[in-house]
Design brief:
This protein is of the alpha/beta class. It contains 10 helices and 11 strands. It has helices spanning about 10-30, 45-60, 75-90, 105-115, 125-135, 145-155, 175-180, 200-205, 260-265, 280-300, and strands at about 5, 35-40, 65-70, 95, 165, 190-195, 210-215, 230-235, 240-245, 250-255, 270. The strands form 3 sheets. It has a 6-stranded parallel sheet with strand order 1-11-8-7-5-6. Strands 3-2-4 form a 3-stranded parallel sheet, sandwiched between helices. Strands 9-10 form a two-stranded antiparallel sheet. The structure holds nicotinamide-adenine-dinucleotide. Nicotinamide-adenine-dinucleotide (NAD) binds near residues 167 and 215.
Length: about 300
Amino acid sequence: MTAKLILGTEIREQILAEVADEVKQIKANHGVVPGLVTILVGENPASISYVTLKIETAHRLGFKEVQDSQKVDITEAQLLGLIDKYNKDDSIHGILVQLPLPKHIDEKKVLNAIDPDKDVDGFHPVNVGRLMIGGSEVKFPPCTPAGIQEMIVRSGVETKGAEVVVVGRSNIVGKPIANMMLQKGKGANSTVTIVHTATKNLDFHCKRADILIVAAGVPGLVKPEWIKPGACVIDVGVNRVGEKVSEKTGKKIAILRGDVDFDAAKEIAGSITPVPGGVGPMTITMLMKNTLNSLKFKLGI
Ligand code: NAD
Protein backbone atom coordinates (compact mmCIF):
# COMPACT_ATOMS: atom_id res chain seq x y z
CA MET A 1 0.00 0.00 0.00
CA THR A 2 1.23 3.52 -0.73
CA ALA A 3 -0.08 6.20 1.59
CA LYS A 4 -2.03 9.23 0.46
CA LEU A 5 0.19 12.30 0.75
CA ILE A 6 -1.07 15.11 2.96
CA LEU A 7 0.52 18.17 1.40
CA GLY A 8 0.85 21.39 3.36
CA THR A 9 1.70 23.15 0.11
CA GLU A 10 -1.83 22.36 -1.23
CA ILE A 11 -3.79 22.85 2.00
CA ARG A 12 -2.01 26.19 2.50
CA GLU A 13 -3.39 27.44 -0.83
CA GLN A 14 -6.97 26.45 0.11
CA ILE A 15 -6.76 28.26 3.47
CA LEU A 16 -5.02 31.36 2.10
CA ALA A 17 -7.70 31.67 -0.62
CA GLU A 18 -10.40 31.50 2.09
CA VAL A 19 -8.59 34.13 4.19
CA ALA A 20 -8.13 36.43 1.15
CA ASP A 21 -11.88 36.20 0.36
CA GLU A 22 -12.81 37.11 3.92
CA VAL A 23 -10.35 40.02 3.94
CA LYS A 24 -12.02 41.40 0.79
CA GLN A 25 -15.50 41.06 2.30
CA ILE A 26 -14.53 42.69 5.60
CA LYS A 27 -12.82 45.53 3.77
CA ALA A 28 -15.95 46.11 1.67
CA ASN A 29 -18.36 45.90 4.62
CA HIS A 30 -16.35 47.49 7.44
CA GLY A 31 -13.56 49.47 5.72
CA VAL A 32 -10.77 47.74 7.68
CA VAL A 33 -8.14 45.08 6.99
CA PRO A 34 -6.23 42.83 9.41
CA GLY A 35 -3.04 44.49 10.69
CA LEU A 36 0.02 42.45 11.59
CA VAL A 37 3.27 43.81 13.03
CA THR A 38 6.43 41.74 13.10
CA ILE A 39 9.17 42.91 15.44
CA LEU A 40 12.57 41.59 14.43
CA VAL A 41 15.58 42.25 16.66
CA GLY A 42 19.01 41.87 15.05
CA GLU A 43 19.92 40.08 11.83
CA ASN A 44 19.66 36.35 12.46
CA PRO A 45 19.57 34.93 8.87
CA ALA A 46 16.99 32.21 9.68
CA SER A 47 14.73 34.81 11.32
CA ILE A 48 15.11 37.16 8.34
CA SER A 49 14.08 34.50 5.81
CA TYR A 50 11.10 33.46 7.97
CA VAL A 51 9.99 37.06 8.47
CA THR A 52 10.36 37.77 4.73
CA LEU A 53 7.96 34.93 3.98
CA LYS A 54 5.49 36.26 6.55
CA ILE A 55 5.60 39.72 4.95
CA GLU A 56 5.06 38.30 1.44
CA THR A 57 2.10 36.22 2.61
CA ALA A 58 0.51 39.14 4.50
CA HIS A 59 0.82 41.41 1.44
CA ARG A 60 -0.65 38.75 -0.83
CA LEU A 61 -3.72 38.58 1.43
CA GLY A 62 -4.25 42.34 1.52
CA PHE A 63 -3.25 42.74 5.18
CA LYS A 64 -1.70 45.88 6.62
CA GLU A 65 1.83 44.64 7.33
CA VAL A 66 4.27 46.52 9.54
CA GLN A 67 7.85 45.33 9.60
CA ASP A 68 9.57 46.79 12.64
CA SER A 69 13.28 45.92 12.49
CA GLN A 70 15.32 46.86 15.55
CA LYS A 71 19.06 46.88 16.17
CA VAL A 72 20.49 44.02 18.20
CA ASP A 73 21.41 46.39 21.05
CA ILE A 74 17.84 47.60 21.69
CA THR A 75 17.21 47.55 25.46
CA GLU A 76 14.53 45.42 27.07
CA ALA A 77 12.73 48.59 28.23
CA GLN A 78 12.72 49.99 24.66
CA LEU A 79 11.32 46.72 23.31
CA LEU A 80 8.62 46.67 26.00
CA GLY A 81 7.82 50.27 25.03
CA LEU A 82 7.37 49.22 21.39
CA ILE A 83 5.01 46.42 22.37
CA ASP A 84 3.00 48.85 24.47
CA LYS A 85 2.74 51.14 21.41
CA TYR A 86 1.38 48.32 19.22
CA ASN A 87 -0.92 47.07 22.00
CA LYS A 88 -2.59 50.51 21.86
CA ASP A 89 -2.62 50.80 18.04
CA ASP A 90 -6.17 50.13 16.79
CA SER A 91 -4.98 49.29 13.26
CA ILE A 92 -2.85 46.38 14.56
CA HIS A 93 -4.62 43.11 15.37
CA GLY A 94 -1.64 40.79 15.62
CA ILE A 95 1.77 41.35 17.24
CA LEU A 96 4.56 38.97 16.53
CA VAL A 97 7.99 39.12 18.16
CA GLN A 98 10.40 37.00 16.16
CA LEU A 99 12.42 34.63 18.36
CA PRO A 100 15.15 34.14 19.38
CA LEU A 101 15.83 37.47 21.09
CA PRO A 102 19.35 38.58 22.09
CA LYS A 103 20.55 37.25 25.47
CA HIS A 104 20.24 40.59 27.32
CA ILE A 105 16.46 40.53 26.79
CA ASP A 106 14.10 38.39 28.89
CA GLU A 107 12.06 36.55 26.23
CA LYS A 108 9.31 35.56 28.65
CA LYS A 109 8.86 39.14 29.89
CA VAL A 110 8.56 40.39 26.31
CA LEU A 111 6.07 37.73 25.15
CA ASN A 112 3.97 38.22 28.29
CA ALA A 113 3.77 41.98 27.57
CA ILE A 114 1.81 41.38 24.35
CA ASP A 115 -1.93 42.02 24.73
CA PRO A 116 -3.42 38.47 24.83
CA ASP A 117 -6.08 39.67 22.36
CA LYS A 118 -3.31 40.47 19.84
CA ASP A 119 -1.17 37.41 20.63
CA VAL A 120 -1.64 35.69 17.26
CA ASP A 121 1.19 33.23 18.01
CA GLY A 122 -0.90 31.93 20.93
CA PHE A 123 2.03 31.68 23.37
CA HIS A 124 0.80 34.11 26.06
CA PRO A 125 -0.18 32.24 29.26
CA VAL A 126 -3.73 33.59 28.89
CA ASN A 127 -4.05 31.96 25.47
CA VAL A 128 -2.44 28.75 26.71
CA GLY A 129 -5.13 28.70 29.43
CA ARG A 130 -7.88 29.43 26.91
CA LEU A 131 -6.63 26.52 24.78
CA MET A 132 -6.72 24.22 27.80
CA ILE A 133 -10.34 25.17 28.56
CA GLY A 134 -11.24 24.67 24.90
CA GLY A 135 -14.45 25.42 22.97
CA SER A 136 -15.46 29.05 22.55
CA GLU A 137 -12.73 30.14 25.03
CA VAL A 138 -10.06 29.51 22.38
CA LYS A 139 -8.95 32.63 20.51
CA PHE A 140 -5.53 31.89 19.05
CA PRO A 141 -4.48 28.24 18.84
CA PRO A 142 -0.69 28.16 18.35
CA CYS A 143 0.08 28.14 14.64
CA THR A 144 1.92 24.84 14.07
CA PRO A 145 -0.58 22.71 16.09
CA ALA A 146 -3.47 24.56 14.43
CA GLY A 147 -1.93 23.71 11.05
CA ILE A 148 -1.58 20.05 12.03
CA GLN A 149 -5.26 19.86 13.03
CA GLU A 150 -6.33 21.50 9.73
CA MET A 151 -4.26 18.95 7.79
CA ILE A 152 -5.91 16.06 9.61
CA VAL A 153 -9.43 17.44 9.17
CA ARG A 154 -9.04 18.55 5.54
CA SER A 155 -7.61 15.18 4.52
CA GLY A 156 -10.77 13.49 5.83
CA VAL A 157 -9.19 11.50 8.67
CA GLU A 158 -11.71 10.55 11.42
CA THR A 159 -10.60 11.99 14.76
CA LYS A 160 -13.60 11.11 16.96
CA GLY A 161 -12.58 8.21 19.19
CA ALA A 162 -9.27 7.82 17.34
CA GLU A 163 -6.13 6.84 19.25
CA VAL A 164 -3.81 9.81 18.83
CA VAL A 165 -0.20 9.42 19.93
CA VAL A 166 1.94 12.56 20.11
CA VAL A 167 5.72 12.13 20.25
CA GLY A 168 7.19 15.18 22.02
CA ARG A 169 5.98 17.45 24.83
CA SER A 170 7.22 20.91 23.84
CA ASN A 171 5.13 23.98 24.59
CA ILE A 172 4.97 24.96 20.93
CA VAL A 173 3.96 21.62 19.36
CA GLY A 174 3.57 18.49 21.52
CA LYS A 175 1.57 19.79 24.48
CA PRO A 176 -0.79 22.08 22.55
CA ILE A 177 -1.63 19.59 19.78
CA ALA A 178 -2.29 16.88 22.38
CA ASN A 179 -4.58 19.27 24.22
CA MET A 180 -6.40 20.27 21.02
CA MET A 181 -7.01 16.68 19.92
CA LEU A 182 -8.60 15.68 23.23
CA GLN A 183 -11.15 18.51 23.30
CA LYS A 184 -14.77 17.67 22.64
CA GLY A 185 -15.63 18.96 19.18
CA LYS A 186 -14.98 18.85 15.45
CA GLY A 187 -11.57 17.63 14.35
CA ALA A 188 -10.80 16.35 17.85
CA ASN A 189 -12.60 14.15 20.44
CA SER A 190 -9.67 11.70 20.33
CA THR A 191 -8.04 9.52 22.98
CA VAL A 192 -4.60 11.06 23.39
CA THR A 193 -1.27 9.71 24.62
CA ILE A 194 1.85 11.88 24.87
CA VAL A 195 5.22 10.15 24.74
CA HIS A 196 8.61 11.72 25.40
CA THR A 197 12.25 11.11 26.31
CA ALA A 198 11.36 9.30 29.56
CA THR A 199 8.71 7.04 27.97
CA LYS A 200 9.35 3.31 28.15
CA ASN A 201 8.58 1.29 25.00
CA LEU A 202 8.04 4.16 22.56
CA ASP A 203 7.30 1.61 19.83
CA PHE A 204 4.44 0.04 21.84
CA HIS A 205 2.61 3.38 22.04
CA CYS A 206 3.29 4.42 18.44
CA LYS A 207 1.96 1.08 17.15
CA ARG A 208 -1.44 1.80 18.80
CA ALA A 209 -1.86 5.12 17.00
CA ASP A 210 -4.60 5.73 14.44
CA ILE A 211 -3.09 9.21 14.17
CA LEU A 212 0.62 9.49 14.95
CA ILE A 213 1.96 13.04 15.39
CA VAL A 214 5.74 13.17 15.69
CA ALA A 215 7.50 16.34 16.93
CA ALA A 216 10.77 15.19 18.49
CA GLY A 217 13.44 16.77 16.28
CA VAL A 218 15.25 13.44 15.87
CA PRO A 219 15.71 12.39 12.22
CA GLY A 220 14.26 8.95 11.46
CA LEU A 221 13.22 8.35 15.11
CA VAL A 222 9.99 6.58 14.13
CA LYS A 223 10.66 3.28 12.39
CA PRO A 224 8.25 1.86 9.81
CA GLU A 225 7.46 -1.15 12.03
CA TRP A 226 6.14 1.28 14.70
CA ILE A 227 3.35 2.39 12.38
CA LYS A 228 -0.08 0.78 12.47
CA PRO A 229 -1.13 -0.18 8.92
CA GLY A 230 -3.43 2.50 7.53
CA ALA A 231 -2.57 5.10 10.21
CA CYS A 232 -2.35 8.84 9.54
CA VAL A 233 1.22 9.98 10.17
CA ILE A 234 1.97 13.68 10.72
CA ASP A 235 5.72 14.31 10.72
CA VAL A 236 6.45 17.70 12.27
CA GLY A 237 10.22 17.20 12.49
CA VAL A 238 12.46 19.43 10.39
CA ASN A 239 16.05 18.26 10.69
CA ARG A 240 19.01 19.55 8.66
CA VAL A 241 21.00 16.47 7.72
CA GLY A 242 23.35 18.00 5.12
CA GLU A 243 23.59 20.42 2.21
CA LYS A 244 23.02 20.22 -1.53
CA VAL A 245 23.09 22.56 -4.49
CA SER A 246 19.64 23.76 -5.57
CA GLU A 247 18.77 22.85 -9.19
CA LYS A 248 16.71 26.05 -9.44
CA THR A 249 19.09 28.65 -8.01
CA GLY A 250 22.49 26.94 -8.03
CA LYS A 251 22.86 27.96 -4.36
CA LYS A 252 23.62 25.66 -1.45
CA ILE A 253 20.48 24.61 0.44
CA ALA A 254 19.87 22.38 3.45
CA ILE A 255 18.82 18.77 3.02
CA LEU A 256 15.83 18.34 5.32
CA ARG A 257 14.56 15.12 6.90
CA GLY A 258 11.62 14.48 9.17
CA ASP A 259 11.38 12.42 12.36
CA VAL A 260 9.84 9.51 10.43
CA ASP A 261 11.56 7.17 7.97
CA PHE A 262 9.34 8.50 5.15
CA ASP A 263 10.20 6.11 2.28
CA ALA A 264 9.42 3.00 4.30
CA ALA A 265 6.58 4.54 6.33
CA LYS A 266 4.59 5.55 3.24
CA GLU A 267 4.24 1.86 2.33
CA ILE A 268 2.47 1.17 5.66
CA ALA A 269 0.59 4.35 6.60
CA GLY A 270 -2.82 5.28 5.15
CA SER A 271 -1.81 8.92 4.85
CA ILE A 272 1.40 10.78 5.61
CA THR A 273 2.98 14.24 5.46
CA PRO A 274 6.29 14.61 3.61
CA VAL A 275 9.26 16.70 4.80
CA PRO A 276 9.63 19.27 3.33
CA GLY A 277 6.20 20.27 1.99
CA GLY A 278 4.12 18.83 4.82
CA VAL A 279 3.54 20.66 8.11
CA GLY A 280 6.16 23.36 7.34
CA PRO A 281 4.01 25.63 5.11
CA MET A 282 1.10 25.51 7.58
CA THR A 283 2.62 27.64 10.36
CA ILE A 284 2.61 31.00 8.54
CA THR A 285 -0.77 30.12 7.02
CA MET A 286 -2.34 29.71 10.44
CA LEU A 287 -0.66 32.90 11.66
CA MET A 288 -2.56 34.74 8.91
CA LYS A 289 -5.80 33.02 9.90
CA ASN A 290 -5.27 33.97 13.57
CA THR A 291 -4.64 37.60 12.57
CA LEU A 292 -7.84 37.64 10.50
CA ASN A 293 -9.73 36.09 13.43
CA SER A 294 -8.32 38.74 15.77
CA LEU A 295 -9.93 41.44 13.62
CA LYS A 296 -13.18 39.44 13.45
CA PHE A 297 -13.27 39.13 17.27
CA LYS A 298 -12.80 42.89 17.50
CA LEU A 299 -15.61 43.56 15.02
CA GLY A 300 -17.83 40.97 16.72
CA ILE A 301 -18.39 39.07 13.45
P1 NAD B 1 11.69 20.49 21.27
O1 NAD B 1 13.12 20.11 21.19
O2 NAD B 1 11.29 21.68 22.06
O3 NAD B 1 10.86 19.25 21.82
C1 NAD B 1 11.08 17.95 21.35
C2 NAD B 1 10.30 16.99 22.20
O4 NAD B 1 10.53 15.68 21.71
C3 NAD B 1 10.70 16.99 23.67
O5 NAD B 1 9.52 17.13 24.44
C4 NAD B 1 11.34 15.64 23.91
O6 NAD B 1 10.92 15.06 25.14
C5 NAD B 1 10.83 14.79 22.76
N1 NAD B 1 11.88 13.88 22.30
C6 NAD B 1 13.11 14.20 21.83
N2 NAD B 1 13.81 13.10 21.55
C7 NAD B 1 13.01 12.05 21.82
C8 NAD B 1 13.17 10.66 21.75
N3 NAD B 1 14.31 10.10 21.32
N4 NAD B 1 12.14 9.88 22.13
C9 NAD B 1 11.00 10.42 22.57
N5 NAD B 1 10.79 11.75 22.66
C10 NAD B 1 11.79 12.55 22.30
O7 NAD B 1 11.20 20.60 19.76
P2 NAD B 1 9.90 21.28 19.10
O8 NAD B 1 10.07 22.75 19.12
O9 NAD B 1 8.66 20.69 19.62
O10 NAD B 1 10.11 20.79 17.58
C11 NAD B 1 10.13 19.43 17.26
C12 NAD B 1 10.47 19.27 15.78
O11 NAD B 1 9.47 19.91 15.01
C13 NAD B 1 11.80 19.92 15.38
O12 NAD B 1 12.40 19.16 14.37
C14 NAD B 1 11.36 21.27 14.84
O13 NAD B 1 12.28 21.78 13.88
C15 NAD B 1 10.06 20.90 14.18
N6 NAD B 1 9.11 22.02 14.07
C16 NAD B 1 8.57 22.26 12.85
C17 NAD B 1 7.66 23.30 12.70
C18 NAD B 1 7.07 23.54 11.34
O14 NAD B 1 7.24 22.76 10.44
N7 NAD B 1 6.36 24.58 11.10
C19 NAD B 1 7.32 24.10 13.76
C20 NAD B 1 7.86 23.81 15.02
C21 NAD B 1 8.76 22.75 15.16
